Amino acid sequence: MKPQDIEDLSFRIIDEEAGDHGFDEQKWSIVRRMIHTSADFDYIKSVRFHPEALQKGIDAIKNGCTIITDTNMARVGIRKKEISRFGGDVRCLIADENVARQAIEEKTTRALAAVDIALPFIENGIYVVGNAPTALLRLIEHVKAGKVMPALIVGLPVGFVNAAESKDALMELDIPFISNKGRKGGSNVAASIINALLIMADSSEKPK
User: Catalytic amino acids?
Assistant: First the structure.
């Protein structure tokens, strides 16, 4: 089977096993891709969308926004064709020398320092957290302080320490977000959300 045939069959299997999930077409395209990436149907119950999340994310992509990720794994997993088509880019600063220097000087994590250094790129952009709760919590601090306003935050840090709590804090903000309840998440799942948005943005530009 060709790769596209495998993906199409996988989506049909997911549709059949999910049954009556209750999502509209756009939200289901995101949740289905999350399931496709993780083979985890729990996302049907745990995923959360801010009411403006999808439209804000799609508009930002079509306006050529910068997408910042907390890990290189998420950056590599995001489709590049659609990003370049709209004039945007995707960056991860975790390995940046300035990030490493600031983390050492301030005795903090690289993930947290990367958020600070990424501030000039985050305004009206998309920040993707798939691994580090510290990154999400730092970003929330900056949003609350009025230092930055992303078009969309995708928050899916994974783990046992502050992962669920950081997502709960995100969902208390009145800012476009896509997240989930609980400990599950990961860079691959976070990247899958962006890919679904990129496909929607690209499809909306093509002639019917």
Answer: 36
